[in-house]
Amino acid sequence: MYDHETATFQRFAENFAACLRRFVEGQAEES
Q: What tens digit of pLDDT does each residue of 11-29 get?
């Protein structure tokens, strides 16, 4: 159960990091 929660959190963190990176890159392109 703990491993499953950790894997879910890792996947969420990776998705969040990817979205954040895309957002930062978009902001850099605008300015």
A: 999 999 999 999 999 998 8
Residue in the block written with tokens 């850099």: 28
pTM score over 0.85: no
At 8, which amino acid appears?
T
Helix (H, G, I), strand (E, B) or coil at 31: coil
2, pLDDT greater than 80: no
Residue 30's Cα: distance from chain center in Å?
21
Residue 13 is encoded by which pair of tokens?
């963190």
What are the distances in angstroms from CA 14 to CA 9, 29, 31?
9, 23, 26
